[in-house]
Amino acid sequence: MTETPAALREPHHADVSGGWLRPAVFGAMDGLVTNIALIAGVGGGGVSPRNIVLTGTAGLVAGAISMALGEYTSVRSANEQIAAEVAKERRELERNPEGEARELAEIWVARGLPEDLARQMAEAIRRNPETALRVHVQEELGVNPDEQPNPWTAATSSFLCFSVGALVPLLPYLLGATSLALALAVGGLGLFVAGAVVSRFTNRRWWTGGLRQLLLGAAAAAATYAIGTLIGVQGGLG
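-> structure tokens emitted (238 positions)
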């Protein structure tokens, strides 16, 4: 029995277009690190658990909204720029299809394809305007015009994942605990788990990804805790 080639089986590869995974990972990590550092900073300053909850909640809401707006704007702007370049390439193909075919063949020749074969392929593609447009955009811009990320998907993923990440270090306080160390420990566990989960998409060792995120978050928390402690001590002396 003949096996179907892998390239013809769907899905063959993971989605690498950046539609949801990148903003989701970035949102979750940013939410964790931001609120862990924020809680460490105000906790180091000696504020009450109630004020820590207030500060952490404000950080969660403000950060989630900011992340969502930033993702939407950046993805929308990138898509608009690509659309403008695609329109420019379409006009060039309409005005000078022979010249564009030669340019495409030269690109392939530069990559090692035999000149005769490159010219034959470029000429064959030129006969189909839509195919020609897609191939030229891919070869010249390095993007697929049919597989651009959705700005709403990016914004929603970022908003939700930031919120979940930022909520993790707040959970002990919301459940009645008053220990800063416990909140930071829960946040650290969240960082490790998040890093380990991300490694699933990148085929990395789960513990390596977890430790990397834990160390990065610990460094941020240590810096803000030191600053919060210094400000708190100075305020007390004043």
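The chain has a mean pLDDT of 89.
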